Amino acid sequence: MNFEEYFKEELIFLLDTQSKKEAFEQIANGLYEHGFVKETYLQAVSEREEVYPTGLLAAEGGIAIPHTDHIHVNKSVISLAILKEPITFLQMGTDNMKVDVNIIFMLAIKKPESQLRVLQMVTEIIQDQEILRKLRLSSSKQHAFSIIKQFCSEITI
């Protein structure tokens, strides 16, 4: 599986937003404008996040991996958002533990059977403290994309 086919420079966002709702809107609107998701995606991903939180505590800070059902997706892609200031998410598998997230990997997966492999790809990234640190310090979407591209060329899933 080729990481690069899932990451697009135009779907990397450096966000200065105050809420999860605003972050989701900006990311989902970008996905929609580029034709990767349907108009229903934003509402679906927001509703799913309320029921199944996706915040994770990584060594380098909080990560979130919001996603929703394939029926809201036109073509598979992973959007990356680097937040200027952390946003509070609920931790995955809990209903009350909070995580301050500053990197969001928003997944749009068209084929349900490929979801596990895509999650494995994202897991590879979030387990690498140095990559997360470099992403958090990215000054441009081009720089963040080059970090992901380099990382993708070095691993195989």
UniProtKB/TrEMBL annotation:
Domain PTS EIIA type-2: 4-151
Keywords recorded for this protein, A-Z: Sugar transport, Transport
Highest taxon of source: Bacteria
InterPro entries assigned to the protein according to its UniProt record, in alphabetical order: PTrfase/Anion_transptr, PTS_EIIA_type-2_dom, PTS_SugarTrans_NitroReg
PROSITE patterns: PTS_EIIA_TYPE_2 (PS51094)
Short name of any one Pfam family annotated for the protein: PTS_EIIA_2
Keyword Transport: yes
Protein name per the record: PTS sugar transporter subunit IIA
